[in-house]
Amino acid sequence: MPRVVPDQRSKFDNEEFFRKLSRECEVKYTGYRDRPLEERQMRFQSACREGRSDLAFVATGTNLSLQFLPPTFHTEGQRPAPTRDYVDFEREQGKVHLKAPMILNGVCVIWRGWVDLQRLDGMACLEFDEERARLVA
């Protein structure tokens, strides 16, 4: 299990990095930038269905390799498909809604947002993951 800081909530609330990303801001798909748009759209959707993708917060330039799977997922054996709680193509036409729990800079957070399937950009934010912070502290 990755290491976490002793007072995760305080770091999330007080550090400028987390304060910026806790407000909804623009994100973009960063994979395969050298490929045509149609190929990038196809690869993005395929990656999401497999439970992963590379997205960046535009304002800060923060690039993340996300996994849209529950935090209890282990990499042994066959990789499960993400559930609709983590990758939802049906909530809104033309968009995919995504959720990715992770430990970032020693703090348990959830990346939560949506991406337009045509433009490959959208909006997202980081939320403090109170439940997971208690479990891994």
TrEMBL record:
Q: Which residues form a coiled coil?
A: none
Q: Which UniProt keywords apply?
A: Nucleus
GO MF annotation: an example: sequence-specific DNA binding
Q: Tell me where on the tree of life, at the top rank, the source sits.
A: Eukaryota
Which Pfam families does the record match to this protein? CBF_beta
State its location(s). Nucleus
Biological process (GO) annotations held by this record are:
regulation of transcription by RNA polymerase II
Name the family.
Belongs to the CBF-beta family.
Q: What is the stated purpose of this protein?
A: Forms the heterodimeric complex core-binding factor (CBF) with RUNX family proteins (RUNX1, RUNX2, and RUNX3). RUNX members modulate the transcription of their target genes through recognizing the core consensus binding sequence 5'-TGTGGT-3', or very rarely, 5'-TGCGGT-3', within their regulatory regions via their runt domain, while CBFB is a non-DNA-binding regulatory subunit that allosterically enhances the sequence-specific DNA-binding capacity of RUNX.
How does this chain assemble? Heterodimer with RUNX1, RUNX2 and RUNX3. Interacts with COPRS. Found in a complex with PRMT5 and RUNX1.
Q: What is the protein named? A: Core-binding factor subunit beta
User: Which source organism does the UniProt entry give?
Assistant: Lethenteron camtschaticum (Japanese lamprey)
| Taxonomic lineage | Eukaryota, Metazoa, Chordata, Craniata, Vertebrata
